[in-house]
Structures are given as structure tokens and as C-alpha cells.
Amino acid sequence: MQYYAIIGDIKRSKKIENRCEIQEKLKKILDNVNSIYNNDISAKFLITLGDEFQGLLEITAPILEIIKYIQREIYPIKLRFGVGIGNVSTLINHEAAIGADGPAFYAAREMIEFLREQEKKLKKQAADIQISVYEKKCFETEEINAMFSLLKIIEDSWTEKQRYTIWDMMIHQGSQEMCAERMDITQSTVARRLADGKYIIYQRTMEVIDEAIRRLGNKKW
């Protein structure tokens, strides 16, 4: 049986002054994820090593939605995510992903290490999410990872006003008028922020990634 293993890590954590506060905030965010997405989680998220955390998801889980939730809630602290698709060779404890091991986690660990190396070479141009299928080299993962890089480039171009407007639209959907009412701004301001933040391209890329990951997870290897 295949799963999504996620290993996350706080970027440049040693340079964060209020590190203990950030770790406590991260713990609360992961607790919320475990509650909100309980039916999609095989082994609950928890902090494992210092600033690193992991969880195990069902192959039907909305994995991109979960990752983006964590990123939004911890912002402006930045994270990296390694995602692995594969089996788990240990017994699965739903209450905690600690001790879980196997191909899915090997692939996730490989991606975390890959991201760290990419950050040294590419700096801010490096992606913050990468996915791999254990011991399988396939064009699908290359496509998805390339799109993750494009997402990161778009996100890094946002102003704070654009960011929160786009997040509001992504979370609540609906019309620009409804977004404007929630944010207490005009519809024209919402439209301008969305256009300048490349919202349509961003949203479409998210949808394509989501579908590509779903197909990858259901693929028979």
C-alpha cells in the first residue's frame, strides 16, 4: 500500500531569534492539521528532530492543500518540504509518525536533502517543495517539481498585500466582491492585486500540480 510521507523543516532555523516560540507555534499548527485532516492522516504530524517534523498521509489526501495550510500559518517563517510516495515497512501508529520508516520516508528524506543542496547553489531561486517516488525516476515527478519551482518564483514576487489577497481568494473562493468585503477594500483593488500577483496563473498551476500528484499516487508501479 502506498502513502505520502512528508518531512518538513524550518529554513535557516539557527538564525531565528525567537526559536522556541516558533517551535511552539509550529507544534500548534501541526496539531490543527492533525485535527482538521484527521481522516486523511495515517500517522499524525509531529516535530521529530529540533526544527524538523513529519507525517504520513493516505494516498487520497489533499496533500498540496495541507502543505499550503502549514506554509500560510507559519508565515513569514519559511519551510522546506520533502514528499515521498511509497510503502511503509514499519507498523503505523496513527497517533504519531515517530518511528515510521520505509520507502515513502526514504524518498521524502532524499528530497529534503536535495532541497538543502539546491538552496546552497540557487539561493532564493530554489524550490521549497519537491516530490519523489522511491527508487523510481519518472518524467511525472520532474514535471511536478518544475511546477513547484514556478510556484515559488510567483510567491516570492508577491507584495504583502498581494499575498493576503491571493490567500483570501484561494481559501474562500467566491467573487472578487466577496473578497473585497472580507478585506474591507474595493473590488478594483482586489482585481489589481490579483492581476499583479499573477493569481490566475498561480491558481491554474496549483490545480495542475494537485491533479498530477493524484495521478502519480494512484499509478501502479
From TrEMBL:
InterPro entries found in the cross-reference section: RNA_pol_sigma_r3/r4-like (IPR013324), SatD (IPR032580)
Pfam families given in the database record: SatD
SUPFAM superfamilies reported in the protein's UniProt record: Sigma3 and sigma4 domains of RNA polymerase sigma factors
Protein name as it appears in the record: SatD family protein
Organism: Hominiventricola aquisgranensis
